[in-house]
């Protein structure tokens, strides 16, 4: 049994006329992705879409998603939509179902039409082109029209594809054993008719189906094969606002459908409106879950500034203890997991209120850790008795401690003055190791800096401090990793108490910069109440080109925390990181 991706819209409410994703393992029970929010948003034409349809381009290994350029929610009504509507189709394309092109409008060269509705497409093997078909109203009547395309950029000359005594819309087609089956909404009583032909654009003959003839108040038919000799025909019960129902057959040629009992299927929380169902592979299904069904936060409770690492077979997160006014935590804990989920808290590893750290009195912030020669070096922030922040280091033979701290801090605010750095505080260390050499990046204020550590990892080499140039809108928490011959820099911007806290991205050919700023890679997602996303670490799997970003966001539900206090009530999340064809980081999907 295969897996399925259902693309659809959800109605005329706010944001309802956009593209939503749902997936299924059996073709009967669907789960909404992206927490039930839209995945794709149209910014072209009417800035809304209906009737999305997804087709696989086997030859070029890509997907096209096409949709009606229409937003009834604007309030112009159905008369305008039918007589003065858009004459374009909205098109997205993707290589992997995750990262999509910007939407584009593809004009339909049918000048006398009042609209272009519910476009779908099917590959014509003989012509090596796609037949795109849709409904248009001309001279007061809806008919189905079609045109060929190779690339969903330009359409050929349209031709009439289907006309009946009354209006027809919403056609869908499936081929089986050389026979093409076409299902269409006949507006006479809003029912679905079935036809068949021996060629895609040949003469279709009406096929009588008692079950289809008995249904009314339905539209948006979609047909897909669930497994060998079993097909599902789904229809949108729009007249009663009940969403989709499933009809089943084991032989398309027999036209013998049965209506599946409602308790035997579930289309998920969102009410599904006209869309398309695409069979997908197990790998594609898992990838969709990885990006659009993330299970965040990954730590129970309030934790911030996470450093995500792997030692041996285990994953660890070293965070700041949060949920304390004024970021006044004094102790650090560690979390451990055999995978990138289900972390369990191990123990407190460093406590600034004890004799463990002689120089510090509190404000335990933003740790990071590195391994060298079998020892673990834990770098952390703390305040001295004079209220100034410093970066200290503690050492252990084990990732979970016990850790022994140096008597004095490693980096102090005096270094800021001595090196004339554009910094406000000596905080936010991150470690970078390359070819046996070790570096610490740090800083808060107008820019970050880097310093090389000595072999002992608890002291630094004099004269190696260098301030970075090019960290646009820098506030704090600069990180770096190397991939594809480039150094990839990320840093946090704005204030951690702001919902606009975010992560910027840039590249350099040198570890020491200057950095070429490119764009933000992690920002808030207000619609889903994901705010204040920042202060992160980027982790690479040991033997894979697979990366993840650990970061914090405002604690959720947001209403649990008063305004003005969300910035020190934060939770830790993990999301996958990807790169485009040029080797640059993609914007993180959260």
From TrEMBL:
This protein's UniProt keywords: Glycosidase, Hydrolase
Alphabetical list of CDD domains matching this protein: GH43_Bt3655-like (cd08983), GH43_BT3675-like (cd18828)
UniProt site positions, description: Important for catalytic activity, responsible for pKa modulation of the active site Glu and correct orientation of both the proton donor and substrate: 428
GO biological process, one term: carbohydrate metabolic process
Metabolic or biological pathway: Glycan metabolism; L-arabinan degradation
Positions of the catalytic residues: 305 (proton acceptor), 476 (proton donor)
Leader sequence residues: none
Pfam family membership, one: Glyco_hydro_43
Keyword Protein biosynthesis: no
Molecular function as annotated in GO: hydrolase activity, hydrolyzing O-glycosyl compounds
Family classification: Belongs to the glycosyl hydrolase 43 family.
Protein name: Glycosyl hydrolase family 43
Organism (species): Jeotgalibaca ciconiae
């Amino acid at each position: 049994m295969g897996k399925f991706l259902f693309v659809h819209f959800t109605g005329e409410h706010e944001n309802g006329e956009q593209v939503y994703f749902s997936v299924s393992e059996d073709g009967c029970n669907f789960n909404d992705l992206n927490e039930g929010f839209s995945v794709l948003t149209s910014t072209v034409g009417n800035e809304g879409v209906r009737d999305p349809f997804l087709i696989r381009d086997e030859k070029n290994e890509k997907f096209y998603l096409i949709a009606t350029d229409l937003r009834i929610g604007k309030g112009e009504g159905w008369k305008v939509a039918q007589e003065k509507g858009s004459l374009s189709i909205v098109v997205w394309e993707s290589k992997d179902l995750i990262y999509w092109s910007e939407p584009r409008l593809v004009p339909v060269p049918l000048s006398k039409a009042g609209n272009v509705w519910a476009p779908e497409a099917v590959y014509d093997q003989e012509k090596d082109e796609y037949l795109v078909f849709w409904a248009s109203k001309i001279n007061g009547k809806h008919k189905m029209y079609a045109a060929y395309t190779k690339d969903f950029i330009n359409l050929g000359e349209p031709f009439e594809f289907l006309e009946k005594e009354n209006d027809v819309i919403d056609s869908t087609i499936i081929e089986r054993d050389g026979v093409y089956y076409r299902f269409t909404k006949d507006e006479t009583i809003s029912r679905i008719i079935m036809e068949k032909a021996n060629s895609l654009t040949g003469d279709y003959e009406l096929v009588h189906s008692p079950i289809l003839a008995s249904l009314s108040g339905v539209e948006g038919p979609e047909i897909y094969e669930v497994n060998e000799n079993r097909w599902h025909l789904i229809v949108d019960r729009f007249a009663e606002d009940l969403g989709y129902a499933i009809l089943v057959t084991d032989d398309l040629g027999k036209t013998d459908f049965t209506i599946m009992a409602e308790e035997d299927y579930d289309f998920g929380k969102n009410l599904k409106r006209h869309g398309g169902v695409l069979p997908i592979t197990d790998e594609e299904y898992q990838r969709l879950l990885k990006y659009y069904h993330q299970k965040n936060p990954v730590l129970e409770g309030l934790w911030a500034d996470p450093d995500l690492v792997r030692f041996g077979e285990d994953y660890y997160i070293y965070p700041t203890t949060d949920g304390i006014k004024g970021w006044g935590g004094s102790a650090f804990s560690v979390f451990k997991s055999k995978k990138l989920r289900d972390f369990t808290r191990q123990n407190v590893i460093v406590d600034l209120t004890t004799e463990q750290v002689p120089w510090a009195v509190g404000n335990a912030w933003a740790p990071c850790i590195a391994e060298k020669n079998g020892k673990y070096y834990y770098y952390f922030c703390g305040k001295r008795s004079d209220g100034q922040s410093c970066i200290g280091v503690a050492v252990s033979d084990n990732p979970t401690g016990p850790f022994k701290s140096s008597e004095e801090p490693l980096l102090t605010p005096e270094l800021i003055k001595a090196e004339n750095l554009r910094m406000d505080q000596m905080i936010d260390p991150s470690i970078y190791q390359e070819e046996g050499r070790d570096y610490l990046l740090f800083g808060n204020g107008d820019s970050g800096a880097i310093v090389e550590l000595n072999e002992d990892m608890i002291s630094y080499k004099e004269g190696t401090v260098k301030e970075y140039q090019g960290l646009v809108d820098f506030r704090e928490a600069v990180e770096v990793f190397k991939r594809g011959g480039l150094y990839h820099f990320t840093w946090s911007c704005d204030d951690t108490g702001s919902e606009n806290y975010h992560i910027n991205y840039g590249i350099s050919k040198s570890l020491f910069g200057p950095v070429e700023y490119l764009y933000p890679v992690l920002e808030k997602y207000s619609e889903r109440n994901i705010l204040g996303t920042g202060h992160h670490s980027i982790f690479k799997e040991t033997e894979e080109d697979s990366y993840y970003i650990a970061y914090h966001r405002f604690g959720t539900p947001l209403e649990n925390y008063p305004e003005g206090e969300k910035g020190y009530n934060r939770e830790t999340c993990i999301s996958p990181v990807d790169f485009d064809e040029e080797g640059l980081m993609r914007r993180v999907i959260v």
